[in-house]
Design goal:
Helix content: 10-25%
CATH topology of the largest domain: Phage tail proteins - horseshoe like beta roll fold
CATH superfamily of the largest domain: Baseplate protein-like domain - beta roll fold
Radius of gyration: 23 Å
CATH class of the largest domain: Mainly Beta
Number of strands: 24
Largest sheet: 10 strands, mixed
């Protein structure tokens, strides 16, 4: 069993646990992820598993979780269960405790640049060096900016910071995490870039997940274009014939799927340093509307979902040949399916009878809750200011 270190928020090692019932480590490239630990309540040092305690899996400073929920039940006879169920989201979940507050002189916090620059900007402004010192989390440190990733143009206002980082990750392909920096006694916010391991490149040894290559035990393939859209009309401010519109995307005939994006919140004016409203350059307005439309189309791409159980005795070694965030080739010759996709989630399952790996390639299949959240985001943009 993989040892789990129990550490205080001040880096004091309390104990190391390796006698537990099961542990499921969910690593998420875009979102937060979670550790679910089941352990007998009589196990030595199990009483140290208290809310707020940090758990580090196998001494890996990038696999760090913080206990938020402890659960134990009574059985039907009223007797206490022997097993604690511990739920610990990844340490980076602490960023969900902050909203993205705009500067005092403007309605939105706008940032444009490489994805890493944009992502680190919002963490810096709302966690590391906020205007209100009470919002600061002193343990968090933003690592040096290497300006990695494609250019993003982003605006945010009172959004959940972790959810904004997830959306920025989806838009750019970059990952993010909060890792332990034991030497400096701090929690480092990092932006990550996966490797291209597909068969179409020659810089890295390719990784092919396929039942025919003895690298996948099982494979679940799902594709759906019910919500697919490839052309967007984006409406900015104005009324009737005076309203500003831009068009992004394209397609012809039966291959054209249109949608409307209400972007009335994109300002035509901006405040200067004296707080006076000034007209924005028209090219900036159009660029922002186009970016809004392109983001909507990315969210409405054809949905292809792949899940699989990875064979432990496969030709490829986890965390050596491939890891979370890498882009790999998936193939099932019997189904006629070959695609390249990023590993966006990995579940490490530790049980007394062995270890197994489950992976999600590309987007996870949307649940009803995810669909509702997506619809709510669109609806919020349609509210007039």
């Amino acid at each position: 069993m993989k040892p789990i270190r129990v550490v205080t928020q001040d880096f004091e090692l309390l104990t190391e646990l390796d006698r537990y019932t099961s542990a499921i480590v969910e690593r998420d490239w875009r979102g937060v992820g979670e550790l679910e630990l089941r352990i007998n309540r009589h196990t030595r040092d199990a009483h140290l598993l208290q809310k707020g305690v940090v758990l580090m899996v196998g001494g890996d400073t990038s696999k760090v979780f913080i206990i938020r929920r402890r659960e134990i039940e009574l059985d039907q006879d009223g007797k206490a269960s022997e097993v604690w169920n511990i739920r610990a989201p990844a340490l980076k979940s602490i960023l969900s405790q902050r909203l993205t507050l705009p500067p005092s002189h403007t309605s939105y916090d706008n940032r444009q640049g490489p994805a890493e620059t944009v992502m680190k900007h919002y963490v810096e402004r709302n966690v590391v060096d906020p205007d209100d010192s009470e919002r600061q989390i002193e343990k968090i440190h933003v690592t040096d900016n290497e300006e990695k990733g494609e250019t993003l143009q982003w605006r945010s206002r009172y959004k959940n910071l972790a959810e904004e980082l997830e959306d920025q990750s989806k838009a750019s392909g970059m990952g993010w995490n909060v890792v332990l920096n034991i030497a400096e006694q701090r929690w480092d916010f990092v932006v990550l870039e996966g490797k291209d391991l597909t068969t179409s490149q020659s810089d890295n040894p390719p990784v092919i997940f396929s039942p025919q290559f003895d690298s996948l035990k099982s494979m679940n393939f799902y594709e759906d274009d019910t919500d697919y859209r490839n052309a967007a009309y984006v409406g900015g401010q104005g009324e009737g014939t005076e309203r500003r519109f831009v068009e992004v995307g394209g397609g012809e005939g039966l291959e054209r799927y249109e949608t409307f994006v209400d972007a009335r919140d994109v300002d035509e004016e901006e405040e200067d340093e004296e707080g006076e409203d000034q007209p924005r350059p028209e090219e900036d307005i159009i660029e922002e509307l186009e970016n809004r439309g392109e983001r909507e189309l990315r969210d409405r791409e054809q949905e292809v979902f792949l899940e699989g159980d990875i064979l432990q005795q496969s030709p490829f070694t986890y965390e050596t040949d491939y890891d979370l965030g890498d882009i790999v080739t998936l193939q099932n010759k019997d189904w006629g399916v070959t695609i390249d996709a990023r590993i966006t989630m990995i579940r490490e399952v530790y049980e007394p009878d062995g270890f197994s790996l489950e992976a999600v390639f590309g987007d996870d299949r949307p649940t009803l809750i995810k669909k509702i959240k997506q619809d709510m985001k669109q609806s919020s943009a349609e509210v007039r200011r």
